[in-house]
Design goal:
Largest sheet: none
Structural class: mainly alpha
Strand content: under 5%
Shape: rod-shaped
Number of helices: 5
Low-confidence stretches: none
Helix content: over 70%
Distance between the termini: 56 Å
C-alpha cells in the first residue's frame, strides 16, 4: 500500500489547523471564566463589605436617633430645625438609608423587604410615639434589618464563592 506524501502533509496540516482553532477557543473560554472569577467576584466582595458597613451604621444611627426621639414630645421637624446636632444626626441617618437603597436591586424580594424595613424605621422616627416606646419599636426593626441583611449578604457570598 503506497501512501501519497501529499496526503500525509494534508493530514498533519489539518491537525495543526484544528489544534490552533481549538486552542484559541479554549483560551477565550478560560479568559471569560477568569474575568468572571476575578472582576465580578472582587466587585461583589466590595459590595458585600460596603453593604455590611452601611447596615451597621444604619442600625447605630437608628438606635441613637430613637433614644433622642424618645425624649422629644414636640413635632420632630421643629426640634430638628432648632438643634444643629440632631439635624446632623438625622441627615446622616437619611444619607445612610439612601446609600443602602441605591445598592439594592428593587426587583429582588429580600431587597424589597429590607427597603420596607428601613422606610418603616424612618416613619417610626418621624411620627410621635403615642405610647412612648419608640426605642423598643426601633430595636425590633433594627433586629429585623440585621436578619434581612444577613440573608442578602449570605446569598451574595455564596455567589462570590462560586465565582459569579
Amino acid at each position: 500500500m503506497d501512501i501519497n506524501p501529499q496526503w500525509i502533509t494534508l493530514v498533519f496540516a489539518s491537525n495543526a489547523m484544528i489544534a490552533s482553532i481549538a486552542g484559541a477557543f479554549v483560551n477565550t473560554r478560560i479568559a471569560r471564566i477568569e474575568f468572571k472569577a476575578n472582576v465580578l467576584s472582587v466587585n461583589r466582595q466590595k459590595w458585600i463589605e460596603t453593604m455590611r458597613d452601611l447596615v451597621a451604621s444604619l442600625n447605630a444611627q437608628l438606635l441613637t436617633t430613637a433614644a433622642i426621639r424618645h425624649t422629644v414630645e414636640e413635632p420632630t421637624g421643629s426640634v430638628i430645625a432648632r438643634d444643629p446636632e440632631l439635624f446632623r444626626r438625622v441627615e446622616s441617618l437619611l444619607r445612610t438609608v439612601s446609600k443602602i437603597e441605591l445598592m439594592l436591586n428593587p426587583l429582588e424580594k429580600d431587597h424589597q423587604q429590607l427597603e420596607a424595613l428601613m422606610s418603616g424605621a424612618v416613619n417610626q422616627l418621624r411620627s410621635p410615639s403615642p405610647d412612648g416606646d419608640i426605642e423598643e419599636r426601633i430595636d425590633v426593626i433594627s433586629r429585623d434589618i440585621i436578619q434581612a441583611s444577613q440573608a442578602i449578604l449570605k446569598r451574595e457570598w455564596v455567589r462570590v464563592k462560586r465565582g459569579e
